[in-house]
Amino acid sequence: MNKSKYIKGISNAKYGYFFSLPFIIAFLIFSLYPTFYTAFIGFTDCQGAGNTDWHILDEPLANFKSVLSNGTFLESIKTTVIIWVMNFIPQICLAMLLTAWFTARRIAVKGQGLFKVIFYMPNIITAATIALLFHALFSYPIGPVNDLLVSFGLRDTAYNFFVQKWGSKIIVAFIQFWTWYGYTMIILISGVLGISPDIYEAADIDGANGVQTFFRITLPNIKTILLYTLVTSLIGGLNMFDIPYLYLNGGPDKATNTTNVFIYKQAFTGKNFYNRAACASMVMFVIICVCSAFVFYIMRDKDAEELKKIKKQEKKAAKRLGARQWQ
Fold first, then answer.
1. HEC assignment per residue over the chain
2. pLDDT tens across 298-309, in order?
3. 303 vs 180, which has greater pLDDT?
């Protein structure tokens, strides 16, 4: 008997459950309950926080039909996906490039700690501060960006970024990229540092260069980290709210009106359609779950699955062989 697990006949395992209780209670109160309550409100005629006289609709799916037929909501989904793709592709590319640079065995980068802090720093700045900063940078008719464009002769007059749809989308996407590429880089670096050095030593002995090492060894071994990064970015991107709302309030002409901005406006402006906002939230919840499941399926470990199938087939064959021997 392992005496370290028992003190006077009392198991220490129960303390693990005790220490996990705060998280479980917080999750039930602040996450699980609001999720189910939001789903329930979607089937009612609830409007406004002070409205207690609400009930389940005679046609429970009426709110969902209304939301799914709402052109603004469908357009907001499209806008959200476009902005997320525009920021995630350069984000993951730059993060992987910096990861390869910082973890290269043949290149000794001086001041790595300082560079990592500088690259990560935008992630710890509040969204309101970033929105105000970029609003001032791209201000019209006088602003730093417009002054540079005119000074270098790229434009004869100032460019009003606030009334240009694609200009606003590009700026919001750039802000998201600038904010999160450092975080993605840190996650990828942590994954690379977890790879056994023996693998790299074997590659060096075999004469592999830096590019071959990165694509043949590093990337396959951080596949799980890449999956985590993609899924978390997908969830965060489809829940994008603070920058699009604080920068231009979803404008111009709803060009940066993401789904969360749409939900916010439904719930807290005008007639306070809590029921429709709840429906839109649950629709996005389902979309995120489906997209995440698809990503998991695409990036699954096919070799491991094939190995499991082979083992199952071997077990079945062994059972059949055993049954025949008994007969």
1. CCHHHEECCEECHHHHHHHHHHHHHHHHHHHHHHHHHHHHHCCECCCCCCCCCCCECCCCCHHHHHHHCCHHHHHHHHHHHHHHHHHHHHHHHHHHHHHHHHHCCCCCCCCHHHHHHHHHHHHHCCHHHHHHHHHHHCCCCCCHHHHHHHHCCCCCCCCCHHHCHHHHHHHHHHHHHHHHHHHHHHHHHHHHHCCCHHHHHHHHHCCCCHHHHHHHHHHHHCHHHHHHHHHHHHHHHHCCCHHHHHHHCCCCCCCCCCHHHHHHHHHHCCCCCHHHHHHHHHHHHHHHHHHHHHHHHHCCCHHHHHHHHHHHHHHHHHHHHHHHHHC
2. 887 776 667 777
3. 180
